[in-house]
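Sequence in, structure out.
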Amino acid sequence: MNQLARRLGVPDAVVIGLGSMLGAGVFVVFAPAAAAAGGAGLLAALALAGLIAFCNATSSARLAARYPESGGTYVYGRERLGPFAGFLAGWGFVVGKTASCAAMALTIGAYLWPGQARLVAVAAVLTVTMVNLRGIGKTVTATKVLVGLVLAVLALVAVTGAPDVSLDRLGAAGGSGRGVLTAAGLLFFAFAGYARIATLGEEVREPERTIPRAVPLALGLVLVVYLALAVVAIGVLGADRLAASAAPLADVVTAAGLPGLAWLVRAGATVAVTGVLLSLLAGVGRTALAMARRRDLPGALAAVHPVRQVPHRAELAVAAVVILVVALGDVRHAIGFSSCTVLVYYAITNAAALTLGRDPARRLPVQALAALGLVGCLLLAVSLPLSSVLAGFAVLAVGAVWYALRRRR
């Protein structure tokens, strides 16, 4: 039997979404986004990234309720747009998110032991994989603990920095329109985790009710947290200092006159990124499972453990590739590359949602949101740094060639 057990309710699904998002945006992306857009531009870029993410979340929730199985947009694209669209979405997600997993693992290494960052990163991947292989219930429990600790650290940063926020720094002129779009594309990397709820669709109870509730709830909570911390970071450090910072939130605490708490913020960053890595590996494994079921990846990866009810072969294969990227890759390039491929993934999500037609049961203009999400994803993807755009579309082209060759055989 190759079916996964339905064990997750709304609170569990929201926790998975929070664990997938909290961390990357707050601890990694704010600095390069500020460099691209400036202070006020960063806030505008964050709002734009949040808007596009909301459009995508609405489309993802509708599709996940219609097709409640593992795989996310890989499944939706196949069902609504055809096999090639589904394959391209799945290929982009697996490759891009594998790079993202490596970036998260390297970030853990850089915070914990900079001199041996790659060694620590490999250990982190192995540890997280062992947790995921014990079952989705263990993943949720571990994620709840991590999310709680991260929220406590972020609250500490906000409370510590709030008294020193300068309105002059917040009102400083922002960057160019192109800079805002580039920053929004980078910041989107921080929101992409809500799709983890959809990729776990086969393990959610009452998916037609649970997923449409959990996705926007998780996204809304994270957007509020990001906006609050962006205001504090810009208001305390200013755009130039924020752009140059390697650890913005630790610098906020130091600038507020409490440098002794910086170690706590660094520990919180490690916990946050570990939470992202935990749920991210689980999501990539489920998409690989869905692709293997349809022979778009080797069929051996379609196995589900008879006791743990997890795609153990797919998760082990993903972990092996992540370790290889950790040994050879660079964290800075991985973020831009991942953003490009994931934005294309969500463009396909919105295109698939457009084929569903109007939904009288929803008050939101879902068709308009899907159209806005489609255009927004493509615009942000091509606005990323040129090296990221070239690398992302080159990998998608390689996948397309592989698909064509496999079909001919």
